[in-house]
């Protein structure tokens, strides 16, 4: 790739033909001998080539950067779905995609995309071009673009406050358009949770992603309650809680996942579900000898919050076949989770002694 323009044009070709597909984009080392690789929806680009593409995109964007009228934004919208060869000039929305691929905190580019989407939203029903179906596709395409950034091994994008905030803004319009379809809203929440969990895998302790998911959940719950009252989310909440616990047990050091699990349990307010969740986590910890702070913080906070001391005692007794509980005194000091861990250590030590006696 000899020039910034060539690097830019390659990215434009990929992004403009993406439609609603999700790409996996990765920065590749220059030692591979090529600055750009593509295998289906998997894209590899060197940091140097990406910088070159960004510089050219920023130059083009700056030339056009002015208070754009609704008509000008609408003209750009009309190029959506066209092939690159059909462009009169490269659309500004593609230019901003290249900019955000390099700099996920570029507020000017992100705000431009908001105005661009608002131009379509404000014309909904006024033009044959802007039908409800077309607008939904625009919003879905924007979400898949963000997913391409947030679920790719791009370190800053997975935890970008700008991108997560923009995603929530876009999703809000999609929820409003689908609020009469309860099933669609539940599927949407499930899909968003999968995206958040993937971003959490790529960037541990991703509090921006889980904060986003809290907002998504509360927004969808309100939309469902407005339509049909309480109770419609109950069975789906069990599935969400199970997925988050499964993810947290596979990433036990990640406090963000554990705190989100407590948030969901608190939203559900079901003693049996909370008890089963704590028992599941405690059995895992006791079984593998896990001493990490994040997991035991979950056990401690969930036990206190949902009144599960008896459940905790029962689980310890069953796991270690004890008939009496230990006498470790719980305190409300700076690190209350350590009381739970101390109790586990006492049982581990007791079990080790019994095992050695048998041998």
TrEMBL record:
GO terms for cellular component: cytoplasm. InterPro entries: Prenyl_trans_a. It comes from the Eukaryota. Keywords: Prenyltransferase, Repeat, Transferase. GO terms for molecular function: protein prenyltransferase activity. Belongs to the protein prenyltransferase subunit alpha family. This is Protein prenyltransferase.
């Amino acid at each position: 790739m000899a020039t910034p323009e060539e690097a830019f044009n390659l990215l434009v070709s990929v992004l403009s033909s993406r439609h609603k597909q999700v790409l996996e984009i990765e920065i590749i080392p220059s030692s591979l001998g090529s600055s750009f690789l593509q295998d289906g929806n998997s894209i590899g680009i060197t940091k140097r080539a990406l910088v070159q593409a960004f510089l050219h995109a920023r130059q083009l964007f700056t030339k056009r950067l002015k208070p754009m009228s609704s008509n000008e934004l609408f003209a750009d919208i009309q190029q959506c779905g066209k092939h690159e060869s059909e462009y009169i000039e490269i659309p500004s929305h593609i230019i901003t995609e290249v900019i955000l691929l390099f700099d996920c905190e570029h507020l000017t580019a992100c705000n431009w995309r908001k105005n661009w989407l608002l131009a379509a939203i404000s014309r909904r029903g006024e033009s044959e071009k802007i039908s409800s179906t077309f607008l939904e596709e625009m919003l879905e395409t924007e979400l898949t673009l963000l997913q391409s950034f947030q679920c790719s091994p791009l370190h800053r994008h997975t935890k970008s406050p700008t991108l997560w905030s923009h995603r929530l803004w876009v999703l809000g319009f999609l929820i409003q358009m689908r609020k009469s379809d309860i099933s669609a809203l539940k599927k949407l929440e499930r899909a968003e949770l999968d995206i958040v969990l993937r971003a959490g895998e790529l960037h541990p302790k991703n509090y921006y992603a889980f904060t986003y998911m809290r907002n998504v959940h509360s927004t969808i719950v309100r939309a469902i309650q407005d339509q049909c009252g309480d109770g419609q989310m109950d069975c789906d909440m069990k599935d969400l809680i199970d997925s988050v616990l499964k993810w947290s047990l596979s990433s036990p050091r990640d406090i963000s996942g554990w705190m989100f699990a407590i948030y969901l349990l608190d939203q559900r307010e079901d003693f049996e579900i909370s008890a089963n969740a704590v028992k599941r986590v405690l059995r895992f910890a006791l079984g593998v000898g896990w001493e990490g702070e994040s997991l035991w913080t979950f056990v401690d906070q969930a036990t206190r919050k949902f009144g599960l001391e008896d459940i905790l005692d029962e689980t310890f007794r069953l796991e270690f076949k004890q008939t009496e509980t230990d006498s470790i005194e719980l305190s409300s000091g700076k690190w209350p989770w350590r009381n739970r861990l101390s109790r586990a250590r006492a049982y581990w030590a007791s079990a080790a002694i019994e095992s050695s006696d048998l041998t």
